[in-house]
Amino acid sequence: xxxxxxxxxxxxxxxxxxxxxxxxxxxxxxxxxxxxxxxxxxxxxxxxxxxxxxxxxxxxxxxxxxxxxxxxxxxxxxxxxxxxxxxxxxxxxxxxxxxxxxxxxxxxxxxxxxxxxxxxxxxxxxxxxxxxxxxxxxxxxxxxxxxxxxxxxxxxxxxxxxxxxxxxxxxxxxxxxxxxxxxxxxxxxxxxxxxxxxxxxxxxxxxxxxxxxxxxxxxxxxxxxxxxxxxxxxxxxxxxxxxxxxxxxxxxxxxxxxxxxxxxxxxxxxxxxxxxxxxxxxxxxxxxxxxxxxxxxxxxxxxxxxxxxxxxxxxxxxxxxxxxxxxxxxxxxxxxxxxxxxxxxxxxxxxxxxxxxxxxxxxxxxxxxxxxxxxxxxxxxxxxxxxxxxxxxxxxxxxxxxxxxxxxxxxxxxxxxxxxxxxxxxxxxxxxxxxxxxxxxxxxxxxxxxxxxxxxxxxxxxxxxxxxxxxxxxxxxxxxxxxxxxxxxxxxxxxxxxxxxxxxxxxxxxxxxxxxxxxxxxxxxxxxxxxxxxxxxxxxxxxxxxxxxxxxxxxxxxxxxxxxxxxxxxxxxxxxxxxxxxxxxxxxxxxxxxxxxxxxxxxxxxxxxxxxxxxxxxxxxxxxxxxxxxxxxxxxxxxxxxxxxxxxxxxxxxxxxxxxxxxxxxxxxxxxxxxxxxxxxxx
Length: 683
Known about the structure:
The chain is α/β, with parallel strands linked by helices. It folds into 4 domains: 31-67 and 374-401, no CATH class; 94-341, no CATH class; 439-487, no CATH class; 492-681, von Willebrand factor, type A domain (Rossmann fold), CATH 3.40.50.410. Helix content is 55%, strand content 11%. The protein is built from 26 helices and 16 strands. The strands form 6 sheets. Strands 11-10-9-12-15-16 form a 6-stranded mixed β-sheet, with helices on both faces. Strand 5 and strand 6 form a beta hairpin. The chain is elongated.
């Protein structure tokens, strides 16, 4: 199953079930799963960009239980893999296999010289004077060559240089030396042009000339690119494409591969001791004798370094292990370390899911495994999933929540709260009595004088046909009329006052309280569409807000809990409404602020007597206007408890002492239960 949105409706589909054998494709996340996982994050600040950035960083688990690894864990995995390599290997071992091979072939040559000297000595005993002189000359030649081998320089490059001019007596030793040199040339040239090794070994003068032509042409294309010209990449590939079996499709692809390998070679040199670095450089000079070829290679390296400065050309690694690395293994390891560094830098710089489109998923799978690669693929598609599902839209380069997303946030918050409740605590709240209204009950009754004439045509015609026995035309009489029953309409007007003072986030109360506001809005708009819900936030001052702005509401950094201003706004809002009126206040603090006559807030902690008096005056005004105030207290102190009890005594409303874990249960259950009692009271 791909990242397509799964259907939520039940369809008449035939399913086939079988035992899990590991080959089936598992379930995958869809946009709804993703958006549900973002609910708490969006409830805190409403910023979808920040929410996606956090999900990239930390990963997430969908409601179905699928876990996607975050970038932070992947970067930890990268660092761990790098440290394991540095703790295991010893870079000095790059020469061990070369030195050991040289020692073995030199010993093979010595053994051959010893055989030659013994054979000459044995031959000289019975030979005539002329043959004896030849035998003695052979013995002297063997002794001279022994001396040459004994006088070889101690450094590896010096030994290679001397052996290149040495006249081997052993054909086998000479063949082994030539094969070793070909192998080293191949490994060194691999740093420049990726997998051209097959073209490097046993190069004829014509092959060497073509290699130089290829590098010269490549350097020329780089110079053209830097001058703003368009190089003839296709023409280059027609001439030299056989050097590049990976078949790059663009010049940029080819240059990036070459730059990564050359940067890895430079990092290996940087990580060596000065003596090791000198030996490798001298060895390279010995093996790549053509000065023009070396110049072209160095020129290519300089050009690539200017084009790809981010490749870490100056980086080095501190190897601390004991396991030696030969030249080929060291080359591969540094390429892997370079790829790890590049992946880490890309992940560190990713601020949105689209940035992960640059990741080579196959290489990430090689480096970090299938789980990380799968997570990277899914994470890179998050934004597109949300856009396709209609949850986000772009506005001047930033993502914004759509109206559908805001509605869904409320539904998600509502679902989170309801899932915590027992199934018998909430229901449809059906009632038996019927009356005048516009909400259909999907039932009918015989028409009586005074009923709204909401005629049910189907049942009315059926009554006439039953009465007359069929036939046409069908004639209706008043006794045939059957009308639709309607629910008795009851309207409730509510203002939710949400505390945004600084203590709310400090005590982890802000997100649960805000989710209650979103859930209550979703509940009323979906189940009780004729009801009114107003929203007031209060801290140092109070503000009336629209439901569409609720997701972006955040706490106030100014000190103060201005209940007085909040009650004032809520009362004015409810004055324009009808039906039963109530204020639901969610708070965790005492009234510590009020509005002065000039409209400026006044703050005092502990609460001043004047602030308390002005707040209670607003409570009295609400009471006179038949507005009930129900208060839900979080982290209630003794003072807050006393004050809220005073409000309840004056107003007749109720007070609830709860926690941020249960606030949603209390508010929603109480709202639904009070509305049920309201309906029952209208029977």
